[in-house]
Amino acid sequence: MIANVNGKICGGDDAVVSVFDHGFVFGEGVYETLRTYERRPFLLERHLQRLRASAAMIDLALPLDDAEIGRRIAETIAAVEGGTEVYLRILVTPGPGEFSYDPTARRNPTFVIIARTFAPPSPGLYAMGVTITVVSISRSQPNSVNPLIKSNNLLPNAMAMREAMRRGAYEGLMLNYRGEITECTQSNFFIVKQDAILTPPLESGLLAGITRELIIECARETGVPLEETVIRMHDLLTADEAFLSSTTRELVPVVQVDRHVIGTGQPGAVTTRLLGAFRERAVRLSR
User: Using CA atoms, how far apart are residues 163 and 80, in angstroms rounded to an integer?
Assistant: First the structure.
């Protein structure tokens, strides 16, 4: 594993930040997760746009322009040995400062890029699908910690995922305080009913996923109807198909929720078709 800490590339064991960093003391900070296709960071411009939006929502000024961030990412990717694809995580915190919530107590922001060889999910996940579970932890309300902020503080997600793991599930599905489906702990969520794709709107309280956005574009490009609409448990339990999406997993079919089998219990035709369209588009956009 390689890290680029404020412009200095080093091995993972040598990567350090101050214990007085507000990211450590108060959990303040934002991040982005990327992967490469053909050793190029995929949809970098969109990720950086979201990174800046997240930072603005917590009053954090990014210390670098996009060109410099791109240069540091390229250097970090080059430091990962071999010709394999690369997983990237960008983290920005306010940097070290006094023990105070006053934003003037912050000093120079900390900018970290972590890179390692990307290990793609097993092909079996796509061929067989996965089981997820509805967890007891609710998604944060937009007027609390807005889910649109891709925050370093992932405690609710981590707790929800651990609950899912205890149940033997691949992912945990989170509801909002109104009982509406929002997203999984590390991925956005979709269902298919009568050959139309449905996905929760951002207003339900979820992250504006970059992969989610591209899936919406792929659906339009391939002529598959897609609607952003409120989804409740009844909609899920009567769905023909379901799938989740994330940067590192693309589209993964969901064939069971707790003890309830979705559709035929096998990855559906719409999901499979959309996964193929997504991968074709990803390769095209990476060239």
Answer: 34
